[in-house]
Amino acid sequence: MNEIATGLLSFIHTSTSPFHTVRTGAAMLAAAGFCELSLHEPWTLTRGGAYYIRFFDSTLLAFTLGDHPRDHLRIAAAHTDFPALRIKPQATLHTPDYDTLNVEIYGGLMRESWLDRPLSFAGKVVLQGEQVFTPQVQLIDYKKPVFIIPRLAIHLNRKVNDGLPLNPQKDMLPLLSLSDEKPSSFTDFLAAYMQIEPSRLLAYDLTVYPCEEGCLLGMHQELLSAPRLDNLTSAYACLMGMIDSHPADGLNMIALFDNEEVGSRTKQGAASQALPRILHSIYRTLQYTEEEYRCDMADAFLLSVDVAHALHPNIPEKCDPSHRPVMGNGPALKTACSQAYVGDAEALGMIKGLCRKYQIPHQHFVNRNDVPGGSTLGSILSAGLSVRGLDVGIPILAMHSARETMGIADQERLQQLLTCYFQDRNQ
C-alpha cells in the first residue's frame, strides 16, 4: 500500500499542468520500454511492441500489440486536466498599493477552497525562434509558493459563515506583489526566472496550482489528501495498468485527453479525431483491412476512468439511498440512464464479471434523482467510436476542491482492475 501511495503522490506532485501530466506519463512509459511514435513520420509497428504518442503536448495515447493483435481491442481513457486558474496574457493588474494577477477560471473549481493557500504556477512558454511557425517551446514549473488569494476578514464580513459568493473577476485574483514606484510585471518576473530577455516571450499557457503536497492521513494512514485527485488518480491507474499488463495479447490502448473539464471539444480533447486517427493508422500499418477494423470495433470495449462521488460523512443524504460508494471499498461502477455516464446492462455485467473473476472489490454509483451530478468523456468517446463502454472511478470527497480526499486502497484496486482488463483473454 505504501508503494501505491508513494507512486501516486509522486505522480501528482510532478503533474502540475496537463503538459506536465503528459511529460511525466511519457517518462513512465519510456522507462518501461515503450517507444515514442511521431505524428510527422511513417510508422513501423511490430507484434509484441509498446508505443506512445503525444498530441499537442497535453494529450497522451499509448498502446501495446500482442502476438495476435486482433484477439481483442480494449481502450481505457482518462483526462490530464483539472479545475484550476489560468494566467491571462496581460497578467499584471497594477494599483498604487498592490499588484494582482489577472487570471481566468478553468473548469468548475470550488472557488472558496482556493483562498489563503500558497500558489505556484506551471505550464508551457513559447519563445521567439528563427522561424515564425517553429517557435521555441519550454515547459516550466516554478514549484515555490509565489501567489495567494486572501480572504476578507470576518470582522469586515460578518455574514461570511452564511456562505461566500465569489466574483471570479474581482475576488479570485491572486496577490502578486506590493507595489512600488516602478510597476512590477509578471512577464518580467517570468523572463527573469527563465533567464531570458522579456522581448523573447511570445505567449504562454500557465496554470496556477496549490503547491501544498499531498499526504496520507487517517488513524491507520488509510486516507490520502492531495490536489488534483480528479483526475490524476485515473491517469496514473491507466498508465500503471498499461505498464503492468505488458506483454499481453490483443490491442490494448490508453488515451489520456486534455480539456475534459471544459467539454472535450478541442483538437486534443476526447471529441477530437485523435483516437480514431490513431486506431486507423495502427490497422493500416499492420496491413489489416477496413472490414477487419469494422469487425474488431464491433467487439471493442471502452473503460472511461474518472472519479466518483463518495458518501459524505456529514451529509450522507446527498447520495442515492441504495448507491452509496464508501472510500476504501473499491472503485465505483457508474451508470446513468441519461448516458451522462456511458454504459448499458451488458457493459455493466462484463466489468462486474471481470471484478468477480479477479476478486476485485467494487461498488455501484448512480446519482440521486434530484442531484444531476456531473459527466465525463466516456459518452463522447463511445459515441464517436460506436463502441460499448462503462464509466468507473475511485470515490472521492470534495471533488473539484483545491484539495480532495480518497481511500488509498481504492487506487490499488483500480490499478488491479485496469491490469486485469488488459490481460484477460476473451476465451
TrEMBL record:
<dbReference type="InterPro" id="IPR023358">
    <property type="entry name" value="Peptidase_M18_dom2"/>
</dbReference>
<dbReference type="GO" id="GO:0008270">
    <property type="term" value="F:zinc ion binding"/>
</dbReference>
<keyword id="KW-0378">Hydrolase</keyword>
<keyword id="KW-0482">Metalloprotease</keyword>
<keyword id="KW-0479">Metal-binding</keyword>
<dbReference type="GO" id="GO:0008237">
    <property type="term" value="F:metallopeptidase activity"/>
</dbReference>
<dbReference type="GO" id="GO:0005737">
    <property type="term" value="C:cytoplasm"/>
</dbReference>
<keyword id="KW-0031">Aminopeptidase</keyword>
<protein>
    <recommendedName>
        <fullName>M18 family aminopeptidase</fullName>
        <ecNumber>3.4.11.-</ecNumber>
    </recommendedName>
</protein>
<dbReference type="Pfam" id="PF02127">
    <property type="entry name" value="Peptidase_M18"/>
</dbReference>
<comment type="similarity">
    <text>Belongs to the peptidase M18 family.</text>
</comment>
<dbReference type="InterPro" id="IPR001948">
    <property type="entry name" value="Peptidase_M18"/>
</dbReference>
<dbReference type="GO" id="GO:0006508">
    <property type="term" value="P:proteolysis"/>
</dbReference>
<dbReference type="GO" id="GO:0004177">
    <property type="term" value="F:aminopeptidase activity"/>
</dbReference>
<keyword id="KW-0862">Zinc</keyword>
<keyword id="KW-0645">Protease</keyword>
